[in-house]
Design goal:
It is a single chain. The chain is α+β, with helices and mostly antiparallel strands. The chain has a single domain, classed as 2-Layer Sandwich (Alpha-Beta Plaits), CATH 3.30.70. The protein contains two helices and four strands. It has a four-stranded antiparallel beta sheet, with helices on one face. The longest helix is centred in the C-terminal third of the chain and has 17 residues. The chain is globular, with a radius of gyration of 14 Å.
């Protein structure tokens, strides 16, 4: 099993949820309002007067074979909107319960 953490501009929340549903990712946890700044480029998402946008984050746990197709869809979406600030991180998961 793998965990995928996805961070993105909150304006694209519904599109990311839709993409996960079409990738058979039933379970996930979402944070609709998170703040942060990317390490490469793009604008900060602080929810402040100077930087009013916010980000969202979603984490899902999927079988190993679903990771590559999901990352490919996320990469294609990010390529369409390079200022989106979309990032995805993958970790191994050990089921504890």
């Amino acid at each position: 099993m793998k965990s995928i953490l996805i961070t993105f501009d909150q304006a694209h929340y519904d599109r990311i949820i839709d993409m996960l549903e079409h990738s058979n990712c039933r379970g996930f946890t979402a944070w609709e309002q998170v703040t942060g700044r990317g390490s490469v480029d793009g604008e900060p998402h602080y929810g402040s007067h100077a930087w009013p946008s916010l980000a969202s984050a979603i984490i899902t746990v999927v079988p190993d074979e679903r990771v590559a197709p999901i990352l490919a869809k996320l990469r294609a979406f990010n390529d369409e909107r390079p200022k989106l600030g979309l990032r995805a991180f993958v970790w191994d998961v050990i089921d504890g319960i």
